[in-house]
Amino acid sequence: MNRVPRMLPALVALVAMTACAAETAPVPLSSAAPARAVAAAGVAAPATTPPATPVPSAPAKKVTLKIADITPMGEKTEKVGVGFPIIVTFDRDVKARADVEALLDVQADKPVEGAWRWVSARKVIYRTKTYWKPHQKVLFTARLSQLPGNTGGKDVSRRFAVGTSNISVVDTRKHQMKVYRDGKIAKKIPISAGSGGMVKNGVDVFLTTSGVHLTMGKKAMETMTSGWMGVTDPKDPRYYKEQIPWAVRISDSGEYVHQSAGYYQYLGRSNMSHGCVRATPAGAKWFYGIAQRGDVVKITGTKRKLDWTNGWSYWQLNWTEWKKGSALKS
Fold this sequence. Notes:
Layout: E1 67-71, E2 79-80, E3 86-90, H1 97-101, E4 104-108, E5 114-118, E6 123-128, E7 136-142, E8 156-162, E9 166-171, E10 176-181, E11 184-192, E12 199-200, E13 203-204, E14 211-214, E15 217-225, E16 241-249, E17 256-259, E18 277-279, H2 281-290, E19 296-300, H3 319-323
């Protein structure tokens, strides 16, 4: 359906900076031997060499690596879905990636295999091989105090709460979304997906992307405009600015599951949106109510493939490809 400008999740600043410089070792005194007495009378002993004056050196600069943000929030703030990633952003570029990655630990009450992948000089993401088990706690710890040279570095930890397993399957050809909760079908919702027909740079931007999306956030009322198409003039027939209820974001390119703004006759019958998944008022409100960040939304039936860098779409990479982003040797 309609699009909005890219939204970023709220950042949580962690760990206060602590600068500390090690004291330098004193410069040793001169090692000249003491003068020996001369046997001959009247001959003075040679003068000793005066000790060198110590030259103080500049204190060594210590870099303290800290974490600028951890996503998602902790167990007391939100419950997350079974597809959720752990996204760690540092306050500066990480050069010793393998050393840092080795100090990042993830422990789950119901363990599954997982791996880190560096996506930039400051950001690393943890994804599991299979979905997390629902209804458990996961503890993340960064032992930055153990990083060589990271004087004043502090250990950081966060515990996550995994909620219900919400896995939704959207079939754009059958115009239906099936929502499974803890493995059981909970609801079938008539939908309308992207109609297609607007090609930009070889991509039909009106098609909904097919692939494994993760929910990233939600708003009870979202303002959607035609600005993403470059249409900002209200006189342009393509212009729109609408208040859309029950909007759950599933990508960075402006895709949502949301209530259809009218046009209910198309729901369950045809694809008429600008790329979002439109749902019935009752279906959209229900889905909004259960949605957790990190819930899985699988979309099938379109020719436009979801890129793994679009939002939290990390499940688009197979496990072998995902592990290639780790700095540690397997």
